[in-house]
Amino acid sequence: MELNVFLPPQALKSGAKVPVFTRLTHRVGGLQIEGEDEAYDFGSGAGFYVDATKEPWTKGYNMYSYITKELPEALFSSFKELDSDRVSITGHSMGGHGALTLFLKNPGKYKSVSAFAPIANPINCPWGQKAFKGYFGEDQQQKWKEHDATELVKQWKGPLEILIDVGTGDNFYKQKQLLPENFVEAAKAAGNDKGINLRMQPDYDHSYYFMATFADDHVAWAAKHLGA
């Protein structure tokens, strides 16, 4: 996997540990599995942050373990400047799905979470259904729910604060691939919606220009929760 790490100057000069802000994207490193490069929404184009249980995807398609276990161990052992007790997470599109599910599946691991145009209810959208059938199998509905933010938020205990931005001009939003309202409604039904800030941004699409426009807000959101 390709990885970029930015260390601010103060971390290199002072020796003080700095908090970590992780941004998730959607691609998986190619593993030469037949068919993995055929679609943008499956295989190397979209690993969905799960540990696959269906062959042949078990051979390396373990993004959940990679992000929650392997990568932190490698980072914190290699960069002593990083504070392993202060980590926040964000992501865009499928990376937004990953950010939400990783946060909700691991209470206390991340200080905060935010997302740009996340796939918030994958078991009820074509993208998610295709991915989960491929990685888990069609008969593994419970496994599907374990990686769906809308299902996970129903089980959350205690206060919950999340920042989500979605553009109203996003074609994938219009095609019912993202379904952020389902996430908010599930949180509301469970009494966990008070701290969820879903911002529908007029006319913005799914592009990185959308992310760039509101990136400062997400950095500030993380900084507040990280005590930075």
TrEMBL record:
Gene source species: Neocucurbitaria cava
Organism ancestry: Eukaryota, Fungi, Dikarya, Ascomycota, Pezizomycotina
Enzyme Commission number, as recorded: 3.1.2.12
Keywords, sorted A to Z: Hydrolase, Serine esterase
Entry keyword Cell membrane: no
Name this polypeptide is given: S-formylglutathione hydrolase
Biological processes, Gene Ontology terms: formaldehyde catabolic process
One Pfam family of this chain: Esterase
Keyword Hydrolase: yes
Active-site residue list: S93, D170, H206
